[in-house]
Amino acid sequence: MLGLVTRCTHGVVMNSRWVAKSLNFNKNYEASVFETTIRVIGGLLSAYDLSDDKVFLEKARDIADRLLPAWNTPSGIPYNIINLRYGDARNPRWTGGKSILADAGSEQLEFIALSQRTNDPKYQQKVEYVIEELHKTFPADGLLPIYIDPHTGITSYSKISFGAMGDSFYEYLLKAWIQGNKTESVTHYREMWETSMKGLKSLIRKTTPSSYAYICEKTGSSLSDKMDELACFAPGMLALGSTGYGPDEAEKFLSLAEELAWTCYNFYQTTPTKLAGENYYFPAGQDMTVGTSWSILRPETVESLFYLWRLTGNKTYQEWGWNIFQAFEKNSRVDTGYSGLKDVSSGEKDNMMQSFFLAETLKYLYLLFSPPSFISLDEWVFNTEAHPLRIATRHANGETYSTIGQDRLQERFHGRKGRSGSN
What we know:
The chain has 14 helices and 18 strands.
């Protein structure tokens, strides 16, 4: 383990040279505000927190400044696409000009962290205003449709989902509370999250005959017996959030997390390749059937296994993770990496490896078999792209004290740099 961490730290040092000399965001390119935030800004800030090398912070600020015009809308709800050179922002045509909930509501961790590290409040102000606007009309069940009008800030009549286009909004409500070290100044995030979890519980159904628990989707008052593999982040989120409840409620939420994780694990186990499809349906009298049958090496199930193992110590979750990894090895491994599958029944490969397979899927599998003290959940919070950010205490006056575990982390990493340099 120590040797692996040494090499990881040495890799951060090596990458800082490339970042300083070659990484250039001044491109005539239309980028997803959300994807750029969670992947690029999140990755750069994580590298900064791990190395204390300011080149990563400078580059994070550069790309964040290029994204900021996306928030210049009448409501403060950001557009989802922006040109990195010219700052022209818009929404995709296929959304009907609407902003996507998971996109607009999942930049908080990164922009808050950037304000904390740079002592510049403008980034935090932009993303927290979004939450303030959503809070004004937050429904009693805490469930928001996936489309929001960026001109009015009002949600549109559309699907409610813990899968595609809804998922990480709920994740970030919880994690913004954790990121602020659960102080009074971030209580509103926790309160909104708990309201949403009441809504989530209203969407839970169970199959016949095996009683698999699943999360329905909802449009208006109608429920759909469909669950995306993307929604398999929810067991981990529920387990992580359960610790903020009293003993009785905590036990109930942890139990629900374990039930949903069992369902998600069986998304894998019930196919010939032992890899999960993109989504599943739950017809009356049947346990589950694959809907969209491709697999693009998604991380959500192993993410939840990681959290459940860390929070319960139950090695069953390690066994499940190992079985999933073995299925990747058998069906997806090729000479140059890992390929997704066009069909989880036939095993036909799609000849593509998504970047999140390295950033998330393999990272969570690695952490699933790492000591709990390594990237401790008491000191770090993971963004939705699995980039760890240090927890920093927030206070009512906006003052932020030193991040949790910073001195201890730097002491360890500085020592490792010396050892790796002598190899």
